[in-house]
Amino acid sequence: MKHLTTGVNCATLTPMDSDGAACIPLLAAHCRWLLAQGCANVVLLGTTGEANSFSLEERKAILEDLLETGLEPQRLIVGTGCCAIDDTVTLTRHALRCGVDRVLVLPPFYYKNIEDAGLIEAFAKTIDAVGDGRLRLYLYQIPQLTGVAFSAAVIESLLHAYPAIIAGIKDSSGDWEGIRALCFQFGKRMDVLAGSERFLIAALRAGATGCVTATANAHPAMIA
Question: Which CATH code fits 7-223?
Fold first, then answer.
């Protein structure tokens, strides 16, 4: 398969003004600096970007306003995952309309101990409702915050059902053995992105395609 996301990708912070609104000029300048320092892509509105501190309308406006500054949508991956499937669908459709085809999607969270069948159904409903062949979806594994982990069976089922849509997984669990297992099981069929630069070299050797790192906000050139 062709890997879409490789190298060092920065999970950008979202600068805010005193009222808590996103400061787009600072965000745009920061994104350009990250790319100029060697980052392959910028991950917008993930955990570091405090996505869940913003409303749906604010999240849409941040993406639109950032793109209006001239940033290329091909260099962005946008977090669109929400508790409610309809909200995830809304943000994912919006990203695609804006020209961003790579999205990072949390599992539905808050309710814990979700069975595999429920997790598969949630993503299937999301993908089917979006209904756009351009979509390239990255599963977001961060169980210490969501309380939900993707089992190998869930990933296998989604890859089988949506081989052109499921583009990869970002694993921010901090569990190296889990990341290595993902590389071994799925590294030839989708992108595996370590959720920290700590694991980058070892992960690349194991078959990962790169990492998504928050540390690059401060030291992108040292990592990239």
Answer: 3.20.20.70
Residue boundaries of the structural domains of the chain: 7-223
Q: Over pLDDT 70: what percentage of the chain?
A: 100
Q: Amino acid identity, residue 73? A: P
Segment 124-155, tens digit of pLDDT: 999 999 999 999 999 999 999 999 999 999 99
| Active-site residue set | 47, 110, 140, 170
Q: What is the pLDDT of residues 47-75, one digit of tens each?
A: 999 999 999 999 999 999 999 999 999 99
Name the E strands within the chain: 7-11, 41-44, 76-79, 102-105, 136-141, 166-171, 191-194, 210-213
191 and 177 Cβ atoms separated by less than 8 Å: no
